[in-house]
Each structure stands twice: as structure tokens, then as C-alpha cells.
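Q: what sequence does this backbone want?
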């Protein structure tokens, strides 16, 4: 590591760990559990990305790179942590269904105004929407989940209308915590890419921030950011859907790449921090 990088990386780690540890403590997630997961991840990344000539790294090499003993490495490789990808998969598929409802002219005007849909039917129905945008997920499972989070509503005439333009789990902590993993990982991967993989051709990574804004303006900004952020995401969603081969099988090209853009608002009450001037 270059001179000064260790100190800078340590400072950056302490900064992003604070909100993460706060979340851990609120959920009774112990330091020991975190340490074990960290060791597991060190071993897996070293194995997969630090080998020679496209092969997995050896146990000895992993031990050297991670600072763990060969015995620890062997144990972690033999008994990897189980991963439950169901919440993440449900999050992705439910979000795609809502996106399709907003942009696909078969289920609205194609310009962000979704039509109320009959539950069943080969064309222009909620069932057809789910089958087109959620892969093999059962229609009833998507329906129940979107009702659960308040994203859809069944009208008196039996048709289904969209109430929310985005899928954000509102009642299930498990689903919300799944978003923590996917969204945070994407941001850190982009930072790594821009720093070390392609600094001359970085991926888009920007933010706007001011730190002396009155509370009244912060509330206005929350509304403005949500409206403009949603508009941008819907525009990009329409563009990507025409090029995604799951949605548009006629899309031409080679390889398979996962691409996207994340938008989030942040806010911190500086006056309430310990040691702040009153």
C-alpha cells in the first residue's frame, strides 16, 4: 500500500463503520458476529480475486494476504456462511414490476401514467405484467408483497391500481436490510473501480451537499430530491428496459452486464451531535 494510504483508508473505514455499527447495535448484532463475517469475506475475496493465472488462491496465499492462520482459512473455506438471497431477489423483481407498469405502454400510456389493471388476462393485466417483468416469480407472491408494502390497491370493481412509484419495503425489516447489502456494496464497488481499476475512465460518482441549511429548507429539499430523483430514475429505467434481454429479447449485443444508478438523500442534524455548540 502506498505511503499514507493506510491512514486514509483507516479514517474512511471509521467514518462509514459508524452508521453501520449503529444499525448493528439496534438489531442486537454483536461485534463477534461482525468479526466472523469480516474474516469470512476476507478469505472469499482473497480466494476469488488474488489467485494466479485465473486460478483460486491457495490456502497458504490466502493466509499470507489476510493475516489469518492456515487453519482458520481452511475452516472458513470448509464451512462458509449461508446466504439468504430471497429478500434481495424479491426486492429486485418487485421493483421491476412497478417499473414496467410505469413505462410499458401495454400497461399504461408508457410515459409514467400506469393504468388500473384487471388481475387476470393474457394481455394488459396484472398477471401479464408480473409474468413479463418478474421472471418465474408467482403472480400471487408479487401481488401479496405489493399489497403488503402499500404499493398497490384493489379497487371496488376488482381492478388493481398502482399507489407507489417505487418499491420500498415499509413493514418488513428483513427486506429493508437486504437493500443495505446490495446498495452499499454497489457504492463501494464503484469507489474501488474509480480508484484502482480505471481511474482514467471513472464511473459516474457525484453528490451535492451543504452543511449550514435551516431545518425548513431541509424539509423542502427532501420533497424536491424525491420528485426529481424519481423522474431521473424512471427516465433511465425506460432506457435500460429497451436494452435488457429479459424484458426485450430482441436486444442485440454480447456478454451480460449488470448496470444501474443509485440515488439517495442524506440528512444529519449537526446541532444535535455531542459537543455541538448550542
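A:
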Amino acid at each position: 500500500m502506498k505511503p499514507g494510504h493506510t491512514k486514509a483508508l483507516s479514517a474512511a473505514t471509521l467514518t462509514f463503520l459508524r452508521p453501520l455499527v449503529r444499525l448493528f447495535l439496534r438489531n442486537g448484532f454483536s461485534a463477534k458476529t461482525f468479526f466472523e463475517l469480516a474474516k469470512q469475506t476476507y478469505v472469499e475475496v482473497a480466494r476469488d480475486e488474488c489467485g494466479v493465472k485465473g486460478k483460486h488462491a491457495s490456502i497458504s496465499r490466502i493466509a499470507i494476504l489476510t493475516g489469518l492462520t492456515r487453519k482458520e482459512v481452511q475452516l472458513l473455506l470448509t464451512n462458509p456462511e449461508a446466504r439468504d438471497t430471497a429478500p434481495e431477489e424479491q426486492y429486485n423483481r418487485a421493483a421491476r414490476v412497478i417499473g414496467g407498469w410505469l413505462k410499458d405502454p401495454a400497461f399504461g400510456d408508457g410515459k409514467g401514467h400506469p393504468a388500473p389493471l384487471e388481475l387476470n388476462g393474457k394481455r394488459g393485466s396484472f398477471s401479464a405484467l408480473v409474468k413479463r417483468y418478474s421472471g418465474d416469480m408467482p403472480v400471487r407472491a408479487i401481488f401479496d408483497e405489493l399489497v403488503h408494502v402499500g404499493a398497490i390497491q384493489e379497487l371496488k370493481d376488482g381492478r388493481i391500481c398502482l399507489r407507489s412509484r417505487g418499491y420500498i419495503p415499509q413493514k418488513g425489516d428483513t427486506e429493508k436490510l437486504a437493500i443495505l447489502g446490495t446498495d452499499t456494496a454497489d457504492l463501494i464497488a464503484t469507489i474501488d473501480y474509480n480508484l484502482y481499476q480505471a481511474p482514467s475512465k471513472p464511473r459516474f460518482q457525484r453528490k451535492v451537499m451543504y452543511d449550514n441549511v435551516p431545518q425548513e429548507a431541509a424539509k423542502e429539499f427532501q420533497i424536491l430530491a424525491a420528485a426529481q430523483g424519481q423522474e431521473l430514475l424512471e427516465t433511465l429505467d425506460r432506457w435500460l428496459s429497451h436494452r435488457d434481454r429479459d424484458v426485450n429479447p430482441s436486444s442485440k449485443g454480447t456478454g451480460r452486464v449488470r448496470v444501474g444508478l443509485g440515488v439517495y438523500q442524506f440528512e444529519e442534524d449537526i446541532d444535535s451531535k455531542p459537543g455541538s455548540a448550542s
